[in-house]
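Why predict the complex rather than its parts? Because the way molecules touch one another can change local conformation, and only a joint prediction can capture that. The input here totals 618 residues.
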Amino acid sequence: MENLLPIAIGILFGCGCYLCMRRNIVRVLLGIMLFSQAANLLIFTAAGLSTGKAPIIPGDALTLSGAHADPLPQALVLTAIVIGFAVLAFAIALVLRAYHKTGSDDLDTFRKSDQ
Amino acid sequence: MPADPPLIALPLVLPLLTAGILLCLRHAHENLRHGVNIASCAGLLAVAVMIVARVSDAGVLALHSGSWPAPIGITLAADHLTAAMVLITAVTGLAVAVYAAAAGTGKFRGYFTPLYQALLMGVNGSFLTADLFNLYVWFEVMLMSSFVLVALPGGRAQLEAAVKYLTLNFIASAFFLVGLGVLYGITGTLNMADLSVKLVAEQQNDLVLSTAVLFLVAFGIKAGVFPFYFWLPSSYHVTPTPVAAIFAGLLTKVGVYACVRVFTLVYSAHQDFLAMILLPIGVLTMITGVFGAASQFYIPRILSFHIISQIGYMIVGLGFFTRGALAATVFYIVHHILVKTNLFLIGGIIGRRTGTQALAKTGGLYAKAPWLAVLFLIPAMSLGGIPPLSGFFAKFALVREGLLLGQWAVIAAALAVGLLTLYSMIKIWNEAFWKNPPAGDRLPDRKVPAMMLAPAVALAACTVAFGLFPGVFMDFSLRAADQLMDPSSYIEAVLDANPPDSP
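Output of the joint prediction:
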């Protein structure tokens, strides 16, 4: 898995980058979405992957012994997903309002704030 | 010091509680809402003064939230730099809250005050946290409130500005996350003090340098440095004056603060590499920003471009990585927050009085309102670096350090940009105050409520005080710089201070 995930992350970043450079605002939105998902996956992978080693302290022990998965990156990713979800929900609503107001989904027509 | 740690949580708790109360009061009378908002900001100012006093005595304050020991739990910490930032945030926060109450925030349908408090909470959180991931979370708190504040008035320009602002900052957050993830993969920790210790052993690791660059991009987008600043001049000027003023004062400086904190503390062993990148970026930021300003004729846009050029000075100060230069940067940040917030407020007052902030349509204000002219001149001359105002001492400290280091090109650029800054300020002076009003155009001459003027006068008084007693503030900046140059006291306070009793 540790060999496959970096490739997946790279593809996600590549797609996100490509979409971010489009003029269509919905594609840009999808692009930044892929960007944040790729970042989440990267945190998850960079901290190391392991299978079947739950970080649970047995009932009769006081500390964790032996190899175990690091639970912190998962907590980080979870937080990042929640924040990313909230920002994205706002972004979608914002883009919809902007589309209704400007009547266009082409970012090149978004020039009113540059005048 | 078991008694004082809760003190440094107050700059977060107070705005949070106030934001909750203000959300409940959304349909209450406007005066009540703004009253609560101002009262909370005044409370924040009192807390900030107490923090500065405590930090002056104790050096570094640290609070382990939930009593988890440092590398495991999230730690809040306040050294001299943090204390200065929290204080200046409270000062500008109070000034803008008073201005907002006088100017009215009807376009926000009651949401201005809770969002304002949430914004202050995010800013304070970014200053106080000693944990990188926590810094990301506070950034997002701050950004989320700022997105809504930009978009809520709902005009076409505001929505377009919000789209640009949101997109670039969302990408910055992704970069930040990537840097975090890789750094955690290398060291297994995200506590900044702990990282600082562990990265000394990783000096040869190129991956560490790439995380530094990722952070530079992430913070650079938020701070508005050279290749990443395009969102700034196309979003700030469409917002109502109170929002623009608080954004201009605080938001970019949070990015600069993050650069200073992370690059002096976490990457203390990689400063040669960082200086190589920071200096050219700083110089280019100064130059492009000031040229952008020179070509503009709408007051908030001129001021927005000047934020960028001034950020360049701070980045250059950081790039020198010496005690004197870091002190100059701290001094510069505080001076700039005061002056820039004030200029936006005065721009708003000009707009209120004449009905426009477009230079071509104004004029003759000196004859009509000489007091406003004086009020404008104080921060404007300070921004241009005229003695004896605060900007002179900020620039002087920086230039002196550059001369000692023999960085002639950087200093030449800094001085030239100072002149061009003065040109822009004089342009506003000539057009708005000095020239005759445009012929045939009868300008409205509305009254400006005293409550709108009071915060601008207070901030101008602070600028003058900075200029008259630069020694006091420079001493504090030097002590902040000492702590930044030698992070051992910060590391000690965060990692070792009052270890909690084991459960």
